[in-house]
């Protein structure tokens, strides 16, 4: 069971970093798309659609790579913990059977009832860990999103520098 905790600790660290990177790139894509859409007519006038598309494709490709890494790590959690739980169950059953058979001939050891109780305990101990690992994907995504939100909230407030007045003066009868 200790193996489950150790492996889940290392995988969760990798997964958390990957989800944070994924959220960061998602924010870059959102900002870029918003910037392009707000300046759509300017982009159209200067005919730089191919540059815009190329940059967007690079950002989305980076996002795809990071998402793949993040979901690979988080997808490993449940099967790994489930299989390690089964391995623990099998090892308790095998070693318990050996101790029970050896003890029966020597007069000391486990009874079959005690062995069954230990195997059931082993199985019931691993199931909640597997369930937690199953929902860890959502937990790690929520933590990465919360970190982004809190970093935005921690930004200093913009100061109001007052208003500016632009005077419209005709110059050679040309008015803008």
UniProtKB/TrEMBL annotation:
Domain ABC transmembrane type-1 as annotated: residue spans: 1-141
Positions of transmembrane segments: 76-101
GO MF annotations, alphabetized: ABC-type transporter activity; ATP binding; ATPase-coupled lipid transmembrane transporter activity
GO cellular component: plasma membrane
Keyword Electron transport: no
Pfam families from the UniProt entry: ABC_membrane
Compartments where located: Cell membrane
Major subcellular site: membrane
Gene3D superfamilies: ABC transporter type 1, transmembrane domain
Top-level taxon: Bacteria
Keyword Signal assigned: no
Entry keyword set: Membrane, Transmembrane, Transmembrane helix
Topology of this chain in the membrane: Multi-pass membrane protein
Family statement: Belongs to the ABC transporter superfamily.
Protein name: ABC-type multidrug/protein/lipid transport system ATPase component
Organism in which the protein naturally occurs: Mycoplasmopsis edwardii
Encoding gene, per UniProt annotation: mldB1_1
């Amino acid at each position: 069971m200790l193996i489950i905790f150790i492996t889940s600790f290392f995988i969760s660290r990798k997964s958390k970093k990957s989800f944070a990177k994924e959220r960061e790139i998602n924010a870059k894509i959102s900002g870029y798309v918003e910037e392009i859409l707000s300046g759509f007519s300017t982009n159209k006038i200067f005919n730089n659609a191919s540059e815009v598309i190329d940059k967007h494709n690079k950002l989305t490709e980076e996002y795809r790579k990071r998402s793949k890494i993040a979901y690979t790590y988080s997808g490993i959690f449940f099967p790994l913990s489930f299989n390690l739980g089964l391995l623990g169950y099998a090892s308790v059953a095998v070693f318990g059977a050996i101790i029970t058979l050896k003890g029966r001939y020597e007069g000391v050891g486990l009874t079959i009832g005690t062995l069954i109780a230990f195997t059931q305990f082993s199985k019931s101990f691993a199931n909640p860990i597997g369930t937690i690992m199953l929902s860890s994907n959502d937990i790690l995504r929520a933590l990465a999103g919360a970190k982004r939100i809190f970093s935005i909230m921690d930004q200093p407030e913009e100061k109001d520098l007052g208003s500016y007045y632009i005077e419209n003066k005709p110059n050679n009868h040309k008015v803008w």
